[in-house]
Amino acid sequence: MKINKKDFKFGRFESDIKKKLKTYENSDIPERIFSKDFTVWKNEQEYDSLIKNRLGWLMLPLSMQEKSDEINSFVKEVKDNGFEYAVVMGMGGSSMCPEVCRDTFGVRKGFVNLFVLDSTDPQSIIDIENSIDIAKTLFIVSSKSGTTIEVDSFMRYFYAKAEEIFGAEAGSRFIAVTDPGTYLEKLSAELGFRKTFVNPADIGGRYSALSFFGLVPAALIGVDITRLLKNAEGVMNDCFENSTVKNPALAAGLMAAVLSEFGADKLTFILSEKIRSFGYWAEQLIAESTGKESKGILPVEGECTGKANSYGRDRFFVNIYLKKDKKNKKVKSLSKKKFPVLTIEMDDLYDLGGLFYFWEFATAVMGAELKINPFDEPNVKESKDNTSNVLDYFEKNKKITEQKAFRVIRRSKCSREMKMTHLIFLLRKTAK
After folding, report:
1. In terms of domains, do 195 and 323 share one?
2. Residue 236 resides in a domain
3. Long-range contacts at 158-163 (CB < 8 A, ≥ 24 apart)
């Protein structure tokens, strides 16, 4: 995957964006990001540890290559022990990358058929249960905090099912992916989980694609994770460059931020069919990272590409396609109509590793230009706390009022999907 200067079309904002890029030419922003200088985003001392403790993703393409043999040995063990299915049980950042990898690469012959459970909708759970043979299924409990209520509920549900078959050995059908010292790490030891992958603690959930959270499920379906990481390493090396010409992720992040300040804040992804699910991951990364302090960039994915005259001037288009695919003719017309467009051509599917890293770095740059912290998640925590409070109330009083549930959902500023997930969960608890 190579992105050149010609791949950036600034449209009617050309003068303003070139002026901004020029001010960043030979800047020290990339150098400061890699040195974990929190003042790239915020000057107040209170942000020092908050930001530094969320930058572990920067060197993952290298550090996780050292873990590839461990992951691949585990995958061999799983196959040798007759597992045919795997279910990732996670929410948000813990489940997005596995879903993208499954949809993009499919399942290689001889590897494990992967399912992703990230919804508390009862029908989703039943559909997965009906699609697997529990006796031949590996359950992957993925939670950074180790206390995610939905994930814990998934685990207990399927643990009970496995216990009916394997008794005291039920834990051998489970693995955990979590941070060090969490409740989940302790629970996995108590229940005798087959393995626990302890992820670096300084990585936020939505920046964890190239960590154990994304790589373990990817390896289980037959993805060559070393090749994926090597690809990401190439993009990482470009990101060390202080030049916006040599560092396209720096240029893309600045372009998105500047455009949003001029009102073109709808970052619209146009993706080849084979990589369409990448939009799910990018949407969460960019929306949760930039949507705060009354600022934000709105990622748009999954739209059918329309004619140029069907769009307002609030659009910035990103066209990502595989080299073997035909170019989308409508993208060319968008550029002719002076819409800003970034074009990214992928050599093959393994460029996905580079794409993950590219947009993580670009999003960090967006935060720097917008003067926000792109690594915190105040509303996610708010939503979790509100949910916990309501469930505590239910446990004590054995009832829950509709008004109480509505207030919790309305106060949360998380994505619509997350709000609905919490609502469904509350209703399920009430029904019991």
Report:
1. no
2. no
3. 158/87, 158/89, 158/129, 158/134, 159/191, 161/129, 161/134, 162/134
